C-alpha cells in the first residue's frame, strides 16, 4: 500500500489507541449570561443556519477526518449517512491519495459519502502544501470525486514539520489559495488542523477571497502528538521529541474564533469542541457553526445510529443553551450576552495591545 494511504490508516489507529488530546480551548473561560425569563418555547427554537446558501438543520459540522485507505470507507459511509439524516455538514479527510493514486478501493473511501448522502452539504479537502504541485483542474478533480458543495484547504505545517517525511515548504501557498479561491467552481474553506488561526492570518485569508475560515484551534486533538507517535514507531527520535515539545502549540480555539470572526463573516469553530454548549459559546463569539472530529470517530466505527445519537445529543445541548440565553435563533445566539474570563481574557487583552 502506498505511503500516503498507509499514513491514513496509522492516523486512525493512533487516535483510537493513544492519548492525543490536549486542553486549553478557552471555552471554560466563556460564560453565557443566563436568562431566567426567556419568553420562548424550547421546542420552537430555530437551530438552522445557512452555509454557502445551503440550509442546515443545526450549526454542526462533522469535521474532516479520514479517507484514502480502504479501512476508512465504513467510517465515512456511517458519518455521511448520519449527515444526510440529520442535515448537517460533513467534510472528508485529505483527498491527496484519491488524486494521486489509481486505486478503486481507495477511491471508494471518498466517493461513498455522496453515494449515501445525496442531499447533504459535503466538502472536499486538499492540503495547502499540495497546491504548490496541483493546478485548478487537480482541485476540481477532488470536487468531482465527491460532488462537493465546497472545498477545504487545510493548513497543517506544524504536523508536516513533525512528520519524518513531512512537506515543510510553505512558500507561495497564500498566492495559490488566492488563485483557487478565484477560479474553483465551489466555495473555499481554509482550515487549520489543531493550531488555530490568528487575526493576522485570518485577515490575509479574507483578503485572498476565501469564503470561510475554520479555525481548528488549540485544545483538542494534537496532530503534533499523533505524528510524534508515528515518529517513535520508526525510530525517528528527534522528530518524536519535536512532536512532544509542540504538542500543545497554537492559538486557543475560543481566541481564534473571536479573532477570525472580527475580520471574516463566515467562521467555523473547531478544535476541542466537545458539546452543544461549546458550539453555543463559539457562536456567541462570532462563529457561524461549530465542528467536531474525534468525538465522532468511535460512533462512526459502531454504525450510523451511533453517529445520529451523538448529533441528536449535540443538538439538544445547543438548543438548551439557546433556551436559557433567550436566543430563538442562531442569529440571536450570535449576539447573546457573554463574559470572557481567565486566561482567555488575558490572551485577548494582550493581543489588543
Automatic annotation (TrEMBL):
Keywords: Cytoplasm, Flavoprotein, FMN, Isomerase, Isoprene biosynthesis, Magnesium, Metal-binding, NADP. Its cofactor is NADPH; FMN; Mg(2+). Its EC number is 5.3.3.2. It is found in: Cytoplasm. SMART domains: IMPDH. The keyword tRNA-binding does not apply. Residues 22-95, 168-336 form the FMN-dependent dehydrogenase domain. It catalyses: isopentenyl diphosphate = dimethylallyl diphosphate. Its main location: cytoplasm. FMN binds at residues 64-66, 94, 125, 191, 221, 272-274, 293-294. It is an enzyme of class 5 (isomerase). GO terms for cellular component: cytoplasm. CDD domains: IDI-2_FMN (cd02811). NCBIfam families: IPP_isom_2 (TIGR02151). Involved in the biosynthesis of isoprenoids. Catalyzes the 1,3-allylic rearrangement of the homoallylic substrate isopentenyl (IPP) to its allylic isomer, dimethylallyl diphosphate (DMAPP). Belongs to the IPP isomerase type 2 family. Homooctamer. Dimer of tetramers. This is Isopentenyl-diphosphate delta-isomerase. It comes from Natronorubrum bangense JCM 10635. The lineage of its organism: Archaea, Methanobacteriati, Methanobacteriota, Stenosarchaea group, Halobacteria. The gene is fni.
Amino acid at each position: 500500500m502506498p505511503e500516503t494511504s498507509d499514513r491514513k490508516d496509522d492516523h486512525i489507529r493512533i487516535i483510537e489507541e493513544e492519548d492525543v488530546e490536549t486542553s486549553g480551548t478557552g471555552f471554560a473561560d466563556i460564560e453565557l449570561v443566563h436568562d431566567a425569563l426567556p419568553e420562548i418555547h424550547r421546542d420552537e427554537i430555530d437551530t438552522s443556519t445557512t452555509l454557502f446558501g445551503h440550509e442546515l438543520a443545526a450549526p454542526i459540522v462533522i469535521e474532516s477526518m479520514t479517507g484514502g485507505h480502504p479501512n476508512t470507507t465504513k467510517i465515512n459511509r456511517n458519518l455521511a449517512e448520519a449527515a444526510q439524516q440529520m442535515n448537517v455538514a460533513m467534510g472528508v479527510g485529505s483527498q491527496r491519495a484519491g488524486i494521486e493514486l489509481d486505486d478503486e478501493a481507495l477511491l471508494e473511501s471518498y466517493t461513498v459519502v455522496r453515494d449515501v448522502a445525496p442531499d447533504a452539504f459535503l466538502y472536499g479537502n486538499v492540503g495547502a502544501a499540495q497546491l504548490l504541485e496541483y493546478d485548478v483542474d487537480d482541485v476540481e478533480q477532488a470536487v468531482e470525486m465527491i460532488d462537493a458543495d465546497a472545498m477545504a484547504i487545510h493548513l497543517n505545517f506544524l504536523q508536516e514539520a513533525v512528520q519524518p517525511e513531512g512537506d515543510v515548504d510553505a512558500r507561495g501557498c497564500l498566492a495559490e489559495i488566492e488563485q483557487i479561491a478565484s477560479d474553483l467552481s465551489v466555495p473555499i474553506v481554509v482550515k487549520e488542523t489543531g493550531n488555530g488561526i490568528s487575526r493576522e492570518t485570518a485577515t490575509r485569508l479574507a483578503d485572498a477571497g476565501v469564503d470561510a475560515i475554520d479555525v481548528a484551534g488549540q485544545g483538542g486533538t494534537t496532530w503534533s502528538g499523533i505524528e510524534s507517535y508515528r515518529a517513535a514507531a520508526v525510530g525517528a527520535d528527534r522528530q518524536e521529541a519535536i512532536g512532544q515539545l509542540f504538542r500543545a502549540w497554537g492559538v486557543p480555539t475560543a481566541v481564534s474564533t473571536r479573532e477570525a470572526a472580527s475580520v471574516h463573516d463566515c467562521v467555523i469553530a473547531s478544535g476541542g469542541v466537545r458539546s452543544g454548549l461549546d458550539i453555543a459559546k463559539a457562536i456567541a463569539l462570532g462563529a457561524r457553526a461549530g465542528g467536531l472530529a474525534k468525538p465522532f470517530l468511535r460512533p462512526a466505527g459502531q454504525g450510523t445510529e451511533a453517529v445520529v445519537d451523538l448529533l441528536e445529543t449535540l443538538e439538544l445541548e445547543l438548543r438548551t443553551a439557546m433556551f436559557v440565553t433567550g436566543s430563538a435563533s442562531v442569529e440571536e445566539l450570535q449576539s447573546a450576552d457573554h463574559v470572557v474570563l481567565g486566561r482567555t481574557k488575558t490572551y485577548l487583552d494582550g493581543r489588543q495591545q
